[in-house]
Design a protein that fits this description.
Elements (H helix, E strand, L loop, with lengths): L2 H20 L10 H35 L5 H24 L5 H23 L8 H27 L3 H32 L1 H6 L2
């Protein structure tokens, strides 16, 4: 396995560690109080740094693959899969934390399933579709929105803002999430319209 593929795999490995620091533990009544208090006070900040490292691997694997001609079908698959798994997992956590609407998550998940379906149809024709530029832009906007949401509690604490100022911070976070959902829909429509031939040829 080459270096870009290892970086994509690392991105997947970092997902449970990100989730660990985002969500308090409460499994069938098992809820360690000290740990959950720590997560409540500092968890999102730690998760943010782990998520940033994971996001950087997304930038690095593509650049390395292109620079050293290490682009492979496995790499195309892993890169796209790692992006989807990372973003969806973190957004599920934010829904659990009541910070992101489940409607937004549903739109994002349905888009990813639709694009995955298109890629499956393309694979039957021997085509392994790499992530397109508009898809990369979509992922970048999603990651920026997620990083901002992770830093929201810290921003509120270090600035000592009032309720109305804190509300403004959250409104900006909402704007970023809406922007990421819009990009999700736009990129999904772009994939669909540019690959209608696979549906017409499908038996």
């Amino acid at each position: 396995m080459n270096l870009p593929n290892k970086l994509s795999l690392l991105r997947i490995i970092l997902i449970p560690f990100t989730m660990l620091f985002m969500l308090p533990i409460n499994i069938y009544g098992f809820a360690p109080e000290a740990w959950n208090n720590f997560i409540g006070n500092h968890g999102l900040l730690i998760a943010a740094f782990i998520f940033i490292v994971a996001s950087l691997t997304d930038m690095m694997d593509g650049k390395i693959a292109r620079k050293y001609n290490l682009i492979t079908n496995l790499g195309k698959f892993l890169d796209s899969l790692a992006d989807k798994m990372l973003v969806i997992a973190v957004l599920i956590a934010f829904v659990e934390l009541h910070r992101v609407s489940a409607w937004f998550l549903m739109i994002i998940v349905l888009r990813e399933l639709a694009v995955t379906g298109i890629r499956l149809l393309a694979s039957k024709e021997g085509v392994v579709m790499a992530a397109k530029m508009i898809g990369k832009i979509k992922t970048t906007v999603q990651m920026i929105a997620i990083i901002y949401l992770m830093f929201e509690p810290t921003l509120c604490k270090i600035t000592g803002m009032t309720y109305f100022e804190t509300n403004a911070i959250m409104i900006f976070g909402d704007v970023l999430i809406v922007a990421s959902v819009v990009m999700t829909v736009v990129s999904g429509m772009d994939y669909l319209l540019k690959n209608l031939s696979y549906f017409k040829d499908a038996q």
